[in-house]
Design a protein that fits this description.
Helix content: 10-25%
Distance between the termini: 18 Å
Radius of gyration: 14 Å
Number of strands: 5
Strand order of the largest sheet: 1-2-3-5-4
Oligomer: single chain
Strand content: 15-25%
Largest sheet: 5 strands, antiparallel
Bound molecules: guanosine-5'-monophosphate, zinc ion
């Protein structure tokens, strides 16, 4: 896992518009954009606009972080018309969790039947 600091964090740069991404939706505190390397027909990432290294780094302001993030994730899934067939929200934390970008993000995966359990 890359423990990107705020200054060299690729997702901070996507949130600020410094590097391009296919933005799907944006609120005051969260941004949703298409994953560069999609693992399903629909693969969108939802991030807080401010830098938080991962789920394990959310502090006492937890509700202020999770509520807008998960609200945007479920809203985007609805926009993508995934509600009926279903979708998966994934959050990888740390090396064993498979996290590769050190800025908190939730994956929305949909458009195909996903296997369980994950490998
Ligand atoms: P993780 O493995 O940390 O849970 O997920 C990181 C995700 O970010 C991966 O699915 C990867 O494809 C995606 N990703 C990495 N760099 C970029 C980028 O520059 N732009 C976009 N849109 N997605 C990226
Ligand atoms: Zn960041």
């Amino acid at each position: 896992m890359t423990r990107d600091s705020k200054t060299d964090c690729i997702f901070c740069k996507i949130a600020s518009g410094e590097i391009p991404a296919r933005i799907v939706a944006r609120t005051d505190s969260a941004v949703a954009f298409h994953d560069l390397n999609p693992q399903a027909p629909h693969h969108v990432l939802v991030i807080p606009t401010r830098h938080i290294a991962g789920a394990a780094f959310v502090g006492p302001e937890a509700t202020d972080v999770w509520a807008p993030l998960m609200s945007l994730a479920t809203e985007v899934a609805k926009q993508l018309e995934l509600d009926e067939k279903g979708y998966r929200l994934v959050l990888n934390q740390g090396p064993d969790g498979g996290q590769s970008v050190g800025h908190l993000h939730v994956h929305i995966l949909g458009g195909r039947r996903l296997s369980w359990p994950p490998g």
